[in-house]
Amino acid sequence: MTTATVPVTITINGEPRELGVAPSRTLLDVLRNEAGLTGTKKGCDVGDCGACTVLLDDVPVNSCLVLAVEANGRRVTTIEGIAPDPDRLHPLQENFMALGASQCGFCTPGIIVMAKALLDRNPNPTEEEIRFGLAGNICRCTGYTKIVEAIQVTARQMAADAGKPA
Amino acid sequence: MHPFAYFEPKTLDETIALLSQHGRAADLMAGGTDLLVEIKEHIRRPAAVINLKTIPGLAELACDAATGLRIGALVTVRTIETSPAVQRLYPALAGAAREIGSIQIRNRATVVGNVCRASPSADTLPPLIAFGAHVEMVGPAGTRSLPLEAFFTGPGKTALGADEVVTAIVLPPPAAQAGSDYIKHGRRRAMELATVGVAVSLRRDGDVCRDLRIVLGAVAPTPIRARAAEALLEGVAPDEATVAAAGRAARDEARPISNVRASADYRRAMVAVLTRRAVAAAWERTGREIQP
């Protein structure tokens, strides 16, 4: 292989996308520029801030530290793919709005994607577990209190909903 | 990022051939969490990046009380952190893994990458050395193994040849009544490099301490054994006075620098405190208290 563009197929939010990418392009840049999905944010670009968090085969990663070629044949979920259908938001998105857990909003997509990954793994986290899980997502506005609260409220709602008959 | 040729070898032989062809102009990539940052920050400008993730078998983790621990080159830090067997048999290593970066970073970063990067402050190195780890390598002349202690030659420098690949880190099985601990000291709790790291591994033989290994991180060009401190506790029933004396001995063996994270004097002072605490925690994991 060379430095030339290579063809990849990445399933982004359930939809297979055929893209040509140079090996030195990050998944973050390809999502934003080639796939047109600008919900995933570019903050530090070196894995410190978490604004670029996406799920790669359901595992949360910093998309700024993944080469786009490495996502070939894999599934990527971004903030645009978190909602269950086009007419409804994810409960995390609803609660971040309702509880004011977002101020400037730049960190919010990464935090919601990370919070979804945390709740998928641990549906009833303690405050300590939420704060430990979000260690790699930096918010400079909120002080985190309302972010933690929105995640806790979501966990309780999802647990209550899961107990209801369909 | 500056452009590079990109390779996805399917075998170790293919990888070694690529390394022989490109020499120091090629960089191996496992997790990529250090390499890609160094390329972005122009610390490295590799002409070629060789991604190891397409080689089958390198992601295997085997952990067993009878055979020990084998960490393949692609095993992530998160896998070590969350493995119940590693948590039970090598608690200082699982604890050190938990201290690295964020979950997002640990889902990509590998233990072998942490070893090959050879940062003096790397969190997994003190516990791996304390547990008596060996490094397995393969190159054009075949395979070889080195004690991890002998692998580091300076900050960012190792004994790995330009055409060699680390395939695994191997730890012997834990002894009966083994205890271990790792304490990281940083300026904050998360997303931080160690100011000082101390790992201790030991076993309890009746009332006395045996086979002690005390390893200090971030206080010398490489992780170092605090051998004088180890000798003070070997064959001894530890009490508060001997453990404190071991802490002072470790402090005198440290050779720290002053930098943005801490002064050399502060690091030395913390070595004494953390060594005392890590020895006590490791001993308590064998089921005994430190005598007053």
UniProtKB/TrEMBL annotation, chain A:
Q: Does the keyword Lipid biosynthesis apply?
A: no
Task: Cite the 2Fe-2S ferredoxin-type domain residue spans from the record.
Answer: 6-82
Enumerate the CDD domains for this protein.
fer2
Q: Does the record carry Iron as a key word?
A: yes
Highest taxon, organism lineage: Bacteria
Classification via InterPro entries:
2Fe-2S-bd (IPR002888), 2Fe-2S-bd_dom_sf (IPR036884), 2Fe-2S_ferredoxin-like_sf (IPR036010), 2Fe-2S_ferredoxin-type (IPR001041), 2Fe2S_fd_BS (IPR006058), Beta-grasp_dom_sf (IPR012675), Diverse_Oxidoreductases (IPR051452)
Q: What keywords is this UniProt entry annotated with?
A: 2Fe-2S, Iron, Iron-sulfur, Metal-binding, Oxidoreductase
According to UniProt, the name of this protein is (2Fe-2S)-binding protein
Q: Which organism is it from?
A: Rhodoplanes tepidamans (Rhodoplanes cryptolactis)
UniProtKB/TrEMBL annotation, chain B:
Say if the entry is tagged with keyword Oxidoreductase: yes
Domain FAD-binding PCMH-type, first and last residues per copy:
1-176
Q: What does the UniProt keyword field contain?
A: FAD, Flavoprotein, Oxidoreductase
Note the InterPro entries from the entry. CO_DH_flav_C, CO_DH_flav_C_dom_sf, Diverse_Substr_Oxidored, FAD-bd_PCMH, FAD-bd_PCMH-like_sf, FAD-bd_PCMH_sub1, FAD-bd_PCMH_sub2, Mopterin_DH_FAD-bd
Q: Which SMART domains match?
A: CO_deh_flav_C
Among Pfam families, the record links this protein to: CO_deh_flav_C, FAD_binding_5
* Statement: the UniProt record of this protein carries the keyword Transferase: no
Supply the name of the protein: Xanthine dehydrogenase family protein subunit M
What organism does the UniProt record list as the source? Rhodoplanes tepidamans
Top-level taxonomy: Bacteria, Pseudomonadati, Pseudomonadota, Alphaproteobacteria, Hyphomicrobiales
